[in-house]
Design a protein that fits this description.
Distance between the termini: 24 Å
Number of helices: 12
Strand content: 5-15%
Radius of gyration: 21 Å
Structural class: alpha/beta
Strand order of the largest sheet: 2-8-7-6-5-3-4
């Protein structure tokens, strides 16, 4: 039986060159970057070298880059760090209803601590309206946080326009760009964005490492205490091998961005075309925006069959996909993203997220479509 991994939006395999770089660091350097002896100095050089490499590739200054444990910590540090620096109580934040839970749960916690939050809606393709964001702005609005591209349906948001709006009103702007890195054209210098969240394991780097880009003059209070690392913004001994792997992953992701986008677009089209051929165009619905989307994420509903049943049958065929929603107590929850898009009930309860990455081929798309066709026919009987 074939084994096909179509859940790269959850986590991606480590690139061989990334693993090689991490092994080099792990076997040759073991000093603490905060130590003053020669071993510590070598460790500090390694972290600084990785920081310089990533900063150059992302278009930010090295001192603007804060290493974290991943996207969730970066989101928390961006939102809590900015609000605590400005004073939580009485301040107003704007976000969207389709953010990752790392943002939504952080905003819910802000509300418990005396902050006001407005959750702007999306249209039926999952896209935020700049006009809705503008209408939500108040005199006490200090932060807007809108993701670059949605992790469930792939819809890309009007980040540049929202950033320009925020800048014109003197409001700080954060974007969760975890899914966008490596597939969208990102240069921190060219976008009116103050804080950027990134994660390594979405771009064939190691799990447990990420970054927050904090533009100069952006206030930020630390969330972790106990050391002077990351210019006092994130205490804790640096994950030296993980950071080195992250730097190599960013380099590889951005070097081949055009080719990767074209490949993912081809895979996406191939899967849709083969599904039309195998089971008919009327057996599935593509969720998301037809114009503004990240090519590596394809969310499809099969209204005849529930999400759980389809995932289970795909898994038995060796195909790994996802619901795109949280799993609580062993039962799948309806996606908050799809609910916010106000999709029909049968579409909500039958959505599957296919996400492409390293190693996926058009032949795998053909095989996946064939198996889905077989599953649909079998369940009809």
């Amino acid at each position: 039986m074939k084994s096909i991994y179509l859940d790269h939006a959850a986590s991606s395999p480590v690139h061989p060159e990334v693993a090689e770089e991490m092994m080099r660091v792990m076997t040759s350097q073991y000093g603490n970057a905060s130590s003053v002896h020669s071993f510590g100095r070598e460790a500090r050089k390694q972290v600084s070298r990785s920081r310089d490499e990533i900063a150059a590739l992302l278009g930010c200054l090295p001192e603007e880059l804060v290493f974290t444990s991943g996207g969730t910590e970066s989101d928390n540090l961006a939102i809590f760090g900015t609000l605590e620096a400005l004073g939580l109580r009485g301040k107003h934040v704007i976000t969207s209803v389709i953010e990752h839970h790392a943002v939504l749960h952080t905003c819910e916690e802000l509300e418990k601590r005396g902050c006001e939050v407005t959750y702007v809606p999306v249209d039926n393709t999952g896209r935020v309206s700049v006009e809705d964001v503008a209408a939500a702005i108040r005199d006490n609005t200090v932060l807007i946080t809108i993701m670059f591209g949605n992790n469930e349906v792939g819809t890309v948001q009007p980040i540049r326009e929202i950033g320009e709006l925020a800048r014109s009103r003197g409001i700080y702007f954060h974007t969760d760009a975890v899914q966008a890195l490596g597939v969208e054209y990102i240069n921190c210098k060219e976008f009116p964005v103050d804080l950027w969240s990134f994660s390594s394991h979405k771009i064939n780097g190691p799990q447990g490492v990420g970054a927050l880009v904090v533009k100069r003059e952006t206030p930020l209070s630390p969330r972790l205490f106990g050391g002077l690392q990351e210019k006092k913004r994130r205490a804790g001994t640096e994950n030296m091998a993980g950071i080195a792997g992250f730097a190599k992953a960013v380099q590889l992701a951005l070097q081949g961005l055009d080719e990767r986008r074209a490949h993912y677009t081809n895979l996406r089209k191939k899967l849709i075309d083969e599904l039309c051929h195998e089971s008919g165009q009327d057996t599935f619905v593509v969720n998301g925006n037809p114009q503004f989307f990240m090519p590596q994420i394809l969310n499809i509903s099969f209204p005849e069959i529930s999400t759980e049943t389809m995932l289970m049958n795909l898994d038995m065929e060796g195909i790994a996909a996802a619901s795109g929603s949280a799993c609580t107590s062993g039962s799948l929850e309806i996606s908050h993203v799809l609910q916010a898009m106000k999709l029909p009930e049968n579409v909500l309860r039958s959505a599957i997220r296919f996400s492409f990455g390293l190693g996926n081929t058009t032949e795998e798309m053909e095989y996946t479509a064939q198996k889905i066709g077989t599953i649909l026919k079998r369940l009809r009987k």
